[in-house]
Amino acid sequence: MPAAKRKAKAPKAAPKKAPKPTTSNLTLSAVKSAISSGDGRKLDKLSGSSDALTFLLGLGSDDATKCAVTLLEHHTNSSPVSASCLSFATSELPSSLVEAIYSSSNLTNKRDLYVAAGWVPPPSATNELSIAFHSNCSSNKAVIKELMATPAFSKIGNAYAAGMNLFDLDLNFEGVYPLESLKLMSFKHFPKKLASLGMAGRVEDVSTFLAVLTHEELKSLACIVRVASDSDALSTEELTMNPGATYDEPPTTTFGGWSKYCSKVASFEVTKIGKPLLGRVNPRVVEATFTIDLSLYNDNIRREWDNWDDANLYLFNVNGTKVDSSVPATNLRQLGVERVRGCKVTSVTDNDGNELTNQWGSNPTIASSPIRNIKVNLDTTQFYIDEKSNKLDVYKDFNVVMRRDPVNNNAPPFLQTLNSISQTTSALPRWLEPTFLGFGNPEDAWGGGEKMKRWAETTPGVPKPTDSIDFGTCFQDDKHIKESFPSHKVTFTGAGQGSKLKFDGKTVSVTHFEPTTDTKSTPRFTPVQVEAIKSGINPGMTLVVGPPGTGKTDTAVAIITNLVRSYPNQRILMVTHSNAALNDLFEKIVATNIVDERYMIRLGGGEKQLNVVSTHDFTKRGRVAYTLARRELLLKDVQLLSESLYVGSKNDRGPKGESSYTCETAELFNKHHVIARIQLYYSNGTDAPFPFAKYCEQKGEPEPTGEEATKVYFDKLQELFDELKDFRAFELLRGGAKRSEYLLTKQAKIVACTVTHAGLARDQLIKLGFKYDSVVVEEAGQQLEVETFIPLLLQKDPTRLKRICLFGDHNQLPPILKDRELAEKGNFSQSFFARMLSLGIKSFTLDSQGRARPEIAALYEWRYGGLKPLPNTSEGAYLKANGGLLHNTQFVNVADYEGRGENCPTPYFYQNLGEAEYVVAMFQYMVLIGHDPKKITILTTYNGQKALIEDVLRARCNNVLFRFMPQVFTVDKYQGQQNDMVLLSLVRTERVGHLRDVRRLVVALSRSRLGLYIFGREELFKEVKELEPAFSLMWQKGTELKLIKGEGAGSDRKSGDAKVSKDKLHVCKGVTDLGQIVGSLQAIALKSVQ
After folding, report:
1. Cα-flanking dihedrals φ and ψ of residue 1068, to 5°?
2. Taking every annotated instance into account, which residue ranges of this chain make up the domain DNA2/NAM7 helicase-like C-terminal (predicted)?
3. Parallel, antiparallel, or unpaired for β 868-869 and 848-849?
């Protein structure tokens, strides 16, 4: 490299440039002399020049490196970092220099220096900065303030956040962009790689800059270049890592394999190269087209491919002559990949020209053929680089296209979100900022604190300390209210199911009222839940710690519905970590019947999983289709009413009988004809004839009788016209996209999404002018700090945010990070929820559980200082024992099976065949004696065991007796869910593994309501002190599975009744013994079926 540089400077004809710092005559001794003399001018000149640093590093000696460190330190201490130094630092800064800088600098210099160089510090430095940021110790307050006062901190925070997001994506970090292997496992090399991908200066192209593949996607690419003879036997479950390729002469790659995520490309062509924008060098747009054939795929996979909107695709140039089939493919080079480029889909048509993108409404176009003609936008910056490097030939040779699993394809927009947040000058409301940064008074952010009370006095849209709080239908009766405030004097006025409470010291004044809608009954909230609901309605931050089964979701629903009723003009953002939790929350809100469905919208990909009895779906497209259909239905009623009053006639209708009215003309008709007749009716007295009798007759409805019934009918008519006012904008807006934006930004009162979708859609929501007043976050304990932080920043005006309600449980699993250095040394495994708790912010810990039998809850309630059982746990099914099983909970010892215990075929892919067979045999036994298979869940602690159990289920449950297979999850993935019966496989027989984390144990033990059966190695887990409080209760029942002969699932035996005659009790001696019992029961059952 030095020779190349000298050669580049050799031509004599080069034009003369303005004088600048030079190192043509520089020597190491001269640098040492300048440093030892302390000559400021010389040091300024040397440290401000990247040439001097390049020269010193080129020498490669320890003395030269130390001199380079000294020059950089002098530069950061004396003046802002220069462009030349920054350019140098972001190009080739060796790790040895990074370590040397860190070891010789103080905290302030390290911060400035690393930010200037575009590097994140080594793990030890990361820990130091992280402690300064996260800790609330008084000794660190000055450091935190000093850090936050500089632009450097926001850049460091952004780099940390971006790194955390990438490492959280479960990647193997074996990718190509365009040919460079992305080895991101070393944290200190991350920012440089990130800059090369687009974080620095290419944010506008983030949809295409990250081509990092997951393990499954790498296997998917391997499959399509398999040898043709293997293709017939390949299925989606049989993806292998042994690719091969066949090719003809001259070398033309042909593909004999099949892949779910990859397809062969035909006719790739660049169709348009736009001119650069003013001040830019890369083209404004680069468009291309190509064709793929989906005929090899079944309908389900074809539908996945046809989800084209905003899709990112990756184009590969695979050279069959370079496929290395002699070893397992671990990177793209071994698969013959020579180039990778990203692109974004703009339109897709089938062979008949039917448009398959940007479809709105309930009846999307069905493709007439499996051929897809795809139009894409290429990465313009990469195209410019290729053009300058004479590499445009790569665009002629693309022969494979890959779509990415949406779960793994969210890094680019997420990184763009983080980058845009780092450039925001004012991000949080002032009442939250000091507490968020860790140096404010913890009480200042809570609604009951004096500072928030003063803030509420001058802030519209929040209850003032002297105002009544609308609890709606949270209370079942007056006794319930008194129980909720045992230390207060409670007085009552008014009548009705609803309640408004006014607090004055130790006095609570209750005013009852009748709700405007028929609401469903609510659970009998405990006093702690009532206090949490009160805090959630007030302004400020509310933290609710919810142990398993204590009603976190019900509490959140009560806060949301009461806010909608109390402040109908405000908007609520509802966020969770998982789709399952969000859907559960959404369904419960719908079930209350308090919030009209037209005011709710669900963003993201999980809305299809909603199990709601509704007249429409809650997707943006479904909402548009519903609104249009609802508008037509209401206008037909207006047309009928008009005809009944002889204002209009049937001749005014359209050719298909549609109404002649629009929302605007309907409003005029209401004003001049309907309201006028109602006023005339009241002015003439209630004995006057009913003005809409003919309308009732035409609709087949009875005419109202009596003053009250007539008033209700008039109100119902006005509700019809009021609803049409909401739809008026649809007559002005054209196109589904514009209409969906209107619903999102103007009409919806509750907007629901996951934290992932919030991160992906932030920039779009900001552009649309999305606004909200309250944020409710479920599963806050499972979210990375940045995942909770982003939903607070989805609007331009931070002062609008009035409430933040966080629901979580820091005693269960924390956020999961794939990178151990970030998790342990950087403290990224601490959630925002846990950090706020550690700061001392007022929290509400729910103390009564209604999910599990008391004997199951006893296994984990020690973690919470005790949980009181709710009355429902001593009723119904909780009173009965689990039929056919002596105990409701039991630890079953599993010895070596076929001479072995745990097995690890690949790193961290732990399996245990004995436990898998035992668990499946247990499932079969329970189903054969009458237990509902849908109420049985199988859990395990490792993905390898999950895959093995699923294999054993397919092999053993392959007849008509097992029509429904149980769901199999890892413990981590099942957090937040529950079922009646849980069978848990612990897998490990040599070491305890990650179950030693008590938080994971709490999750595993708290998923069942009626029965929990754990399969593991007794001698291993008996030695673990951390698990003793839970497992000691199970050792008392013995570790051999105890069955009751002849007893079915419908037994009337009482729970806890372990007195069974010896002739009915069967003690299993192992998996073989249980297998024989299952075989006998299965033979009898099959015989009866035949």
Report:
1. -70, 135
2. 829-1018
3. parallel
